[in-house]
Each structure stands twice: as structure tokens, then as C-alpha cells.
Fold this sequence. Notes:
The protein has 3 helices and 12 strands; from the N terminus they run βββββαβααββββββ. With 154 residues, it is mainly beta. The strands form 3 sheets. Strands 3-2-6-9-10-5-4 form a 7-stranded antiparallel beta sheet. The protein has a 3-stranded antiparallel beta sheet with strand order 1-11-12, with no helix packed on it. The protein has a two-stranded antiparallel ribbon with strand order 7-8. Strand 9 and strand 10 (117-129) form a beta hairpin. The longest helix has 6 residues, at 48-53. It is globular and about 45 Å long. The model has no long low-confidence stretch (mean pLDDT 94).
Amino acid sequence: xxxxxxxxxxxxxxxxxxxxxxxxxxxxxxxxxxxxxxxxxxxxxxxxxxxxxxxxxxxxxxxxxxxxxxxxxxxxxxxxxxxxxxxxxxxxxxxxxxxxxxxxxxxxxxxxxxxxxxxxxxxxxxxxxxxxxxxxxxxxxxxxxxxxxxxxxx
Length: 154
């Protein structure tokens, strides 16, 4: 699967014990009517228990300028929210990462254990899109074990 490029997202959860989040490259749009999304989480993830207990999540679509943030959220859990200048909390309780061009809030509709991961299906309830005012240079892409920016072809 290293040969298939994927967009990079960060999923955040407002857990009872504090904010939880993780980097994910498995995001997919499932349906327009109703607006459903999906992503996977590994059964070995430190965020799994919080994900399984969550009623809602925020999925952040990262721009190329956020590769350091993607790395932060793929490493030790205690470091992910340590810098409080990087995030704030929605009125619904989920953490939102600053300077993210697009994010969606979704209520968890279903979790399905499959193999060594759990598939999470969410119903989109809110969309934030700041790309009109602040265009992103390029989305962040994960390919061959590293972060990349796509280049436009003729």
C-alpha cells in the first residue's frame, strides 16, 4: 500500500479524559445524501478506546504547511495537545486545530472491527472551509512512507 498516495487528515475527539487525536491517511467520502465519511483506526492505537467511546469527531484536511502537525499526531499521545496554542475547543467539545484549511465535524454512526483496524463511519454535521479567504498551496499527501505535496500536471 506504500505505492498508493493518500491525503492526510488528523482526527480529534473530545474525550472525558481530555483531547485525543491521531493522524489518518484512510479518510474517504462515502455518501452525499446523507453526507457520510469514513476512516480507519488501528487496534494498536493509543486513541482506540476514546474513538470507540466517542459520539462525534472532527476530521481535519491538512495542507502541505502542516506536515509537522501530521508528524506530531502520529507520535506519542501525550505530546499531541501539549502546545495549547495549536488548538481550541468547539462548543460541542471536540478539539479543532488552528490553521487547518478545511475540517468537518461528524457524529459517529457506526464502528466496524475489520482485521486489525476498526472502520468508523460518520455523518457530517458541520463543515468549515477557509480556502476562499486563505487558499492552501497544496494538500498534504502521504506516499512511500513520507509526506509530499502534489504538483499540477499540464
